[in-house]
Amino acid sequence: MAIGTRDRIVETTAKLFLERGYTGTGMKAVALGSNATFGSLYHYFPGGKEELAAEALRTAADGYASRVGEVLGGAPDVVTAVRLAFEGAAVTLQDTDYADACPIATVALEVASSNEALRQVTAEIFEGWLVFLEIPFLAAGLDQPRARELAILFLAALEGGFLLCRAAKDPAPMYALGRTVVEAVEHALADTRP
Amino acid sequence: MAIGTRDRIVETTAKLFLERGYTGTGMKAVALGSNATFGSLYHYFPGGKEELAAEALRTAADGYASRVGEVLGGAPDVVTAVRLAFEGAAVTLQDTDYADACPIATVALEVASSNEALRQVTAEIFEGWLVFLEIPFLAAGLDQPRARELAILFLAALEGGFLLCRAAKDPAPMYALGRTVVEAVEHALADTRP
DNA sequence: GTCTATACTTTGATAGAC
DNA sequence: GTCTATCAAAGTATAGAC
């Protein structure tokens, strides 16, 4: 079945958020990029830009979690999974001229102090990701607090890596983070199995 | 000596960048916040918003490096320094209602794919910070590549922590990162002194 | 559901008096 | 150096025909 107008609008919005952020993405640009008109935009999203943004963020977050989930699920063990995630992020950045990074981060920082409704949306997304990322660490035998700590380290390092790599147009920081975070995970596992 | 109009403009811009980002900060708001007029704005910054942004970013970056430098320099050893840096960031976030975070990150993500001139400014700032952060690790006896890896981990984790804490309005991620990054530093030091 | 036209505001920027 | 007035463009959003 063909992709509907509504889906195209959401998809275009998420893509524009990646490149230009929330404030930098105009409804005009969304209409143009999705081959929709203002009538369609406000027909599907009576709440305007804010409502559209909320849905675009949630959709993009689900898609990104799926991508990361495939990498993590396809690895034989947690350490390999973490290593592949950072290496994959580095390669993807290079392949897309440093455009394909976290679809939430830019908007999250923009709205954190200026738009309470969207701030909550980004908070829910990150919390969902953290719960999702705890799973492989729990499966590897770590207790809950420890699994959460490592999930936070994983996500924060990935986000920081996106920031440094995109600014420098250089994948090196992401590779370096892959090495240090892998070491941290190895040490955490060693502590539970002396 | 009194603070000049020019300084007020730059300071106001940096502050607004923290709360609203680059695209979200209008020249009108800068003029209002700094008690300056459009005439003064474009008198001091003929290059307009872009030129003003570049200077605001560089000034804010120097100020932030000084603040971090004081924390790092005042600690008896690297491990303590790292711990205090993350704990200090967490406390500052809480004290300022999650507004006082990295003065560069939001703008850096916004411009990474859409404004090459400002992207380069943010790249230079981050590179300067990394060189600055390598120092305590080198002083602790680590070799250059290793010191760089840990500087990247430190900065990326801090940036990722700002993101997660601001989105959630919760300092917990920053404290968790403090613990895991401290462990990573401890292990790195242990490897060089077996 | 989709279209065009339009209202209204804000944006970055400039001109010229003072 | 500072001020006011003003511009053209882009911003969000709405109305009403189809």
Number of discrete helical segments of chain A = 9
Sheet of most strands of chain A: none
**Largest interface by residue count?**
A-B, 49 and 50 residues
The whole-angstrom Rg of chain A is 18 Å
What does this structure look like?
Two copies of one chain form a homodimer. Chain A is about 80% helix and about 0% strand. The first copy, chain A, contains nine helices and no strands. Chain A has helices at about 5-20, 25-35, 40-45, 50-75, 80-95, 105-110, 115-140, 145-170, 170-190. In chain A, helix 4 (about 50-75) crosses helix 5 (about 80-95), helix 4 packs parallel to helix 7 and helix 6 (about 105-110) packs across helix 7. Chain A is elongated. The first copy, chain A, starts with a helix and ends with a helix. Chains A and B meet through helix 1, helix 6, helix 7, helix 8 and helix 9 of A and helix 1, helix 6, helix 7, helix 8 and helix 9 of B. The first copy, chain A, binds a DNA duplex (18 and 18 nucleotides) through helix 3.
Give the topology, please.
Two copies of one chain form a homodimer.
Chain A lengths: L4 H16 L6 H7 L4 H7 L3 H27 L3 H18 L9 H7 L4 H24 L4 H25 L3 H21 L2
Helix pairs in contact in A: 1-2, 1-4, 4-5, 4-7, 5-8, 5-9, 6-7, 7-8, 8-9
The structure holds a DNA duplex (18 and 18 nucleotides).
Write a brief caption for the model.
Helix content of chain A is 78%, strand content 0%. Chain A has 194 residues and is mainly alpha-helical.
Essential attributes:
mainly alpha, elongated, homodimer, 78% helix, 0% strand, 194 residues, DNA-binding
